[in-house]
């Protein structure tokens, strides 16, 4: 397997996200679509209450190559179950891996871990011809565990013991399956049109399914609103601001209580919120600069980060920047 220089944006996003959490977080899936094959980006938030199996493999190994038919058949058996099988390749450039995937006719979701950040975050010993595959499971209750590649079905059964769908797919008619998928994985705004349209459907099974989905979405909205209101009452204004903003985005298309907009307008006028927003904008600027393979662009990103820490150390972005600087300076990304 080819060694590969750290690619910047993956490394930067991983350490910034981990810094924001303040504890041992689950591995962060990259948001960049170019780091995925056969799948759009996924996240642990999307799979909350569900399980994820992570298969790390060495593409230069004949045994790994011969195992793909078994893995793809195994993945088919998981269809309809609240679990996702993802293959992870560490240390190989996208174009080289794409050629391998096409030649081998692999149809599974594949995460491209060019800089081995994801491999490291999962506690996986470096994949190589001496360590050809590893299995990790993210359980429904948010824990990262180790599995045996030779016992896939047993590992899956155990992972499924605590995993579940929010809404029983057996109660969803075919015409609303895509809508159900969006609801299950938290993409509520994409489901809004079909859910609302079918509230008065002449087909009873369609109407009932649409009503159940609407009830579920409204419950999620109310839970998030309750959390935002609690933060506001506790004077955690920045957390409340982020949660109210998230409600407007995630639940676009549904009936959102007027208090969400009212509280957002009030918070937006707060001086501390303005500082947090300005700091976040500068952090995003550094993130974009760091996505470049140009060393000079990355050095400019470091200047932005250091200035952010100097001027706004108390902000969320300032704390992320401080942690990012520490990790970056101990790496090879600026060389």
From TrEMBL:
Q: Which GO terms describe its molecular function?
A: oxidoreductase activity
- Enumerate the spans annotated as Thioredoxin domain: 20-165
> One of this protein's Pfam families, by short name?
Redoxin
Q: Which residues form the signal peptide?
A: 1-22
Task: Please list every transmembrane segment annotated in the UniProt record, as residue ranges.
Answer: none
Keywords, alphabetical: Signal
Protein known as:
Redoxin
**What is the native source organism of this protein?**
Gimesia fumaroli
């Amino acid at each position: 397997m080819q060694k590969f220089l750290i690619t910047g944006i993956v490394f930067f996003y991983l350490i910034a996200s981990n810094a924001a959490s303040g504890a041992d977080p689950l591995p962060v899936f990259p948001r960049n679509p170019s780091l995925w094959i056969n799948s759009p980006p996924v996240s642990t938030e999307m799979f909350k209450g569900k399980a994820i199996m992570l298969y790390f493999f060495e593409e230069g190994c004949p045994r790994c190559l011969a195992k793909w038919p078994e893995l793809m058949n195994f993945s088919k058996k998981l269809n309809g179950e609240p679990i996702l099988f993802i293959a992870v390749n560490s240390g190989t450039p996208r174009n080289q891996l794409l050629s391998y995937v096409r030649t081998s006719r692999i149809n599974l979701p594949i995460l491209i871990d060019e800089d081995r950040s994801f491999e490291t975050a999962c506690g996986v010993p470096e994949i190589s011809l001496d360590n050809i595959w590893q299995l990790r499971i993210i359980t429904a209750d948010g824990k990262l565990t180790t599995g045996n590649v030779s016992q896939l079905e047993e590992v899956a059964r155990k992972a499924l013991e605590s995993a579940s769908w929010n809404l029983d797919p057996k109660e969803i008619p075919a015409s609303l399956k895509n809508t159900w998928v969006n609801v299950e994985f938290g993409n509520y705004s994409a489901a809004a049109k079909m859910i609302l349209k079918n509230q008065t459907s002449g087909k009873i099974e369609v109407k009932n399914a649409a009503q159940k989905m609407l009830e579920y979405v409204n419950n999620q909205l109310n839970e998030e609103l309750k959390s935002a209101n609690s933060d506001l009452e506790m004077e955690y204004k920045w957390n409340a601001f982020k949660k109210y903003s998230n409600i407007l985005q995630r639940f676009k298309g549904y009936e959102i209580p007027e208090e969400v907009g009212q509280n957002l307008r009030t918070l937006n006028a707060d001086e501390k919120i303005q500082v947090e927003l300005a700091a976040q904008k500068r952090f995003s600027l550094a993130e974009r600069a760091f996505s470049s393979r140009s060393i000079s662009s990355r050095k400019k990103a470091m200047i932005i980060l250091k200035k952010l820490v100097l001027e706004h150390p108390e902000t969320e972005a300032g704390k992320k920047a401080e942690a990012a600087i520490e990790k970056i300076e101990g790496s090879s990304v600026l060389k």
